[in-house]
Amino acid sequence: xxxxxxxxxxxxxxxxxxxxxxxxxxxxxxxxxxxxxxxxxxxxxxxxxxxxxxxxxxxxxxxxxxxxxxxxxxxxxxxxxxxxxxxxxxxxxxxxxxxxxxxxxxxxxxxxxxxxxxxxxxxxxxxxxxxxxxxxxxxxxxxxxxxxxxxxxxxxxxxxxxxxxxxxxxxxxxxxxxxxxxxxxxxxxxxxxxxxxxxxxxxxxxxxxxxxxxxxxxxxxxxxxxxxxxxxxxxxxxxxxxxxxxxxxxxxxxxxxxxxxxxxxxxxxxxxxxxxxxxxxxxxxxxxxxxxxxxxxxxxxxxxxxxxxxxxxxxxxxxxxxxxxxxxxxxxxxxxxxxxxxxxxxxxxxxxxxxxxxxxxxxxx
Length: 365
Prior knowledge:
Blueprint (H helix, E strand, L loop, with lengths): L1 E5 L3 H10 L4 E6 L3 E3 L4 H6 L8 E3 L1 H4 L3 E3 L2 E5 L4 E4 L4 E3 L2 E4 L3 E2 L12 H17 L2 E5 L3 H13 L4 E6 L11 H14 L2 E4 L6 H6 L3 E6 L5 E9 L4 E2 L32 E3 L12 H19 L15 E4 L5 E4 L5 E2 L1 H9 L4 H7 L9
Parallel strand pairs: 1-2, 1-9, 2-5, 9-17, 11-12, 11-15, 12-13
Antiparallel strand pairs: 3-4, 6-7, 7-8, 10-16, 14-15, 18-19, 19-20
């Protein structure tokens, strides 16, 4: 049995780790290393932290890892095609391509570890040098980045701009919202809510340095450095043509109760590229990966697969600076600084991620 996993993010790695000792596995990713994206904000502020956020695939998966970019799913032939024309056959296929967005909260699909480390070294030096910083986008990434900057550099002027009145996600409860806003206020992060940045093209043209950030309501904010944390889009290049009729209007693959792509036998979609009506977070992608891996093992044994239960409970942990944050539990309970600091603030889950890939995290330099 040959299982191919396209995409080595949180969901793809979770599936691959569950399957690698039970089948012939090929994990395909355009990068040479897993990027622990939850550490991107800390990597942007603390020089050298990014070294903890890249975990090379080969020591974990050996010959089961293949570096390359998939550009077509040949479902009838049960093959995937890579850029360059090479094809890889499969018995089962798991598509886990995730989402992309602007640096520093996301890395380009083709950015390898060496390049990524250089990029984070550069942005951390820019943050260190800047006195007035504007963070554009108040999702989880923007909130965490703003908090990390002010926690490490308490004299910097940090402004967070978000087009909605609700930060992070509109599915979190009011208590979580209040905890997030209180934490930002405590750290001294200024917030501009309900206003959208209106001159993004101008900011890009100036590489977001020494700019005036303008909003649609007329506000103007001078910044030595502006950092975009907006515009996440599904990475659909692997299937946008070959499975064009199987996607929704966001580019996510429509799946059935088993996370199998509707009408496409033995092909599954997990994580951000899956159409499940859930909060798209790393833990959700990991749950998808583990569930599909378990079902593939059942199918290989001639047993019936189990349907996936949609997780309607909202759970989220934000580290807003090293010393605090906000946590919403699945039962709706909200915890503040001490709990966020205990479970995430110290290392933003880097140690846990290395351990999940059966690796030992390198010591601090």
